[in-house]
């Protein structure tokens, strides 16, 4: 399994009272892949001291070099946290600096003159005493102070900077948004359907219209940016209300990053209740079945992992032969798919029975609908080495996995013959372990020289 611990969990693991949990995780690394992402580094950048470099070293003891990041597409690379941190841009509490923006470009300098000539005096149109008392003072200033477009442009930028750096200001804005829920009719007016102001009434309509709301640019957005927009929108539309007293704008933005990268894993763990609630909401909306866990639930998972890691291929074969209709997930084109009660080799959790005119066979694979469509090198290595340890070198004399074996998305895999059964480890998008009766292969002639 791929496991993603958010930064607050990793930081807590440094405490002496969490030594037992840390030791359990370090032992579990023998069987599962612990990952980090660029979002972890964004968290650490807020620390202006050198302590963050000690944090990077500690993080590495858990996540090794298993890094998720995004550059026009999702990327998984083997980069140690301290190596990935160095080329990263320095964190800044300010997003907008108008003097610098308009002075570095001749064209923008000209725009500054034009913007100053465009009147925009909201104060004369909206009397101050007509605004409700509960509107945050920063919003009132945004409406009252500007007299032209340039001043308004700068005021909006300053407002964004304040939200980034001042937790109090951001907390006031979130509280205001929570007190002024949008009604179902207003959601419909802005194009968001399938939501009645309190809950989702039509998931498909809501998912499509909510995404469309953020896709105003005709050129579209990368799914990373769209996901972050949707995650942040949960708070600002009051779809999921967090606790304003705990909120800071950069925390909210980075929570979205963690939720995005966690969606490419099997498990994501946090101790932040707001994060867990929002992440479950957006995963449910997108049919992402990554398990979202708090620390207590994760500790229970580690205990289950410890037991399941003792199970071997004979145990998997025995369980799959005893499944009943309650475990059936689907039946399509003579392929019967069953959910296993255990996860074997930290990967196989379903068995597929294939019925054909020439015979029947079964294959085991992984069922979990997260946002990942590929297989990691770590997973190839782990499963190959486990089965080599159990069955020995394969029929062709191949043993340990080498990444050079994969060419053009094709892998020679591993093949063993055990009495009258052929066992094949290979992949088509996901790794599978197939058990073919020898007579079936003779009839179909799919294996040569066996």
Main attributes?
450 residues, alpha/beta, seven-stranded antiparallel β-sheet, 20 helices, globular
Describe the structure.
This protein is α/β, with parallel strands linked by helices and 450 residues long. It is 45% helix and 17% strand. The chain is built from 20 helices and 13 strands. The protein has helices at residues 7-12, 19-28, 38-44, 51-63, 81-85, 98-103, 106-116, 122-125, 137-144, 149-165, 167-179, 184-189, 203-214, 223-236, 249-262, 273-285, 295-308, 313-320, 377-391, 438-444; strands at residues 2-5, 33-37, 66-70, 74-78, 267-269, 291-293, 328-332, 335-344, 348-356, 359-365, 414-418, 421-428, 430-437. The strands form two sheets. A seven-stranded antiparallel β-sheet has the order 7-8-9-10-13-12-11, sandwiched between helices. Strand 8 and strand 9 (348-356) form a beta hairpin. Helix 9 packs antiparallel against helix 10 (149-165). Residues 91-96 have low confidence and may be disordered.
């Amino acid at each position: 399994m791929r496991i993603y611990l958010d930064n607050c969990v990793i930081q807590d693991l440094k405490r002496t009272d969490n030594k037992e949990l840390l030791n359990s995780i370090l032992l579990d690394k023998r069987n599962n892949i612990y990952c980090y992402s660029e979002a972890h580094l964004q968290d650490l950048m807020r620390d202006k001291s050198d302590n963050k470099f000690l944090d990077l070293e500690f993080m590495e003891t858990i996540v090794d070099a298993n890094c998720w990041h995004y550059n026009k597409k999702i990327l998984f690379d083997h980069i140690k946290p301290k190596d990935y941190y160095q080329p990263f841009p320095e964190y800044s509490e300010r997003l907008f600096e108008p003097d610098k923006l308009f002075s570095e470009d001749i064209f923008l300098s000209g725009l500054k003159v034009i913007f100053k000539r465009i009147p925009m005096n909201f104060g004369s149109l909206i009397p101050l005493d007509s605004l409700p008392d509960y509107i945050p003072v920063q919003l009132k200033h945004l409406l009252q102070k500007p007299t032209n477009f340039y001043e308004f442009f700068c005021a909006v930028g300053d407002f964004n900077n304040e939200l980034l750096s001042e937790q109090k200001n951001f907390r006031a804005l979130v509280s205001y948004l929570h007190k002024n829920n949008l009604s179902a009719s207003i959601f419909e007016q802005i194009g968001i359907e399938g939501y009645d102001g309190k809950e989702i009434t039509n998931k498909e309509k809501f998912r499509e219209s909510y995404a469309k709301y953020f896709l105003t640019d005709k050129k579209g957005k990368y799914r990373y940016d769209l996901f972050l927009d949707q995650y942040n929108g949960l708070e600002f539309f009051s779809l999921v209300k967090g606790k304003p007293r705990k909120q800071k704008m950069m925390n909210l933005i980075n929570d979205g990053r963690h939720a995005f990268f966690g969606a490419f894993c099997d498990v994501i763990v946090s101790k932040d209740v707001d994060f867990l609630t929002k992440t479950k909401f957006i995963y449910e909306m997108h049919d992402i079945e990554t398990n979202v866990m708090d620390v207590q639930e994760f500790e229970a998972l580690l205990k289950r992992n410890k037991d399941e890691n003792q199970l071997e291929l004979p145990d998997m074969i025995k369980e799959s032969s005893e499944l009943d209709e309650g475990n059936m997930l689907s039946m399509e084109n003579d392929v019967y798919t069953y959910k296993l009660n255990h996860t074997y080799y930290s990967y196989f959790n379903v068995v597929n029975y294939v019925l054909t005119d020439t015979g029947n066979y079964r294959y085991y694979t992984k069922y979990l609908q997260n946002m990942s469509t590929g297989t990691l090198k770590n997973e190839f290595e782990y499963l190959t080495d486990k089965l080599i340890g159990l069955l020995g070198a394969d029929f062709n004399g191949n043993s340990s996995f080498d990444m050079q074996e994969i060419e053009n998305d094709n892998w020679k895999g591993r093949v063993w013959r055990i009495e009258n059964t052929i066992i094949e480890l290979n992949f088509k998008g996901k790794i599978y372990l197939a058990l073919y009766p020898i007579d079936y292969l003779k009839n179909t002639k799919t294996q040569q020289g066996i």
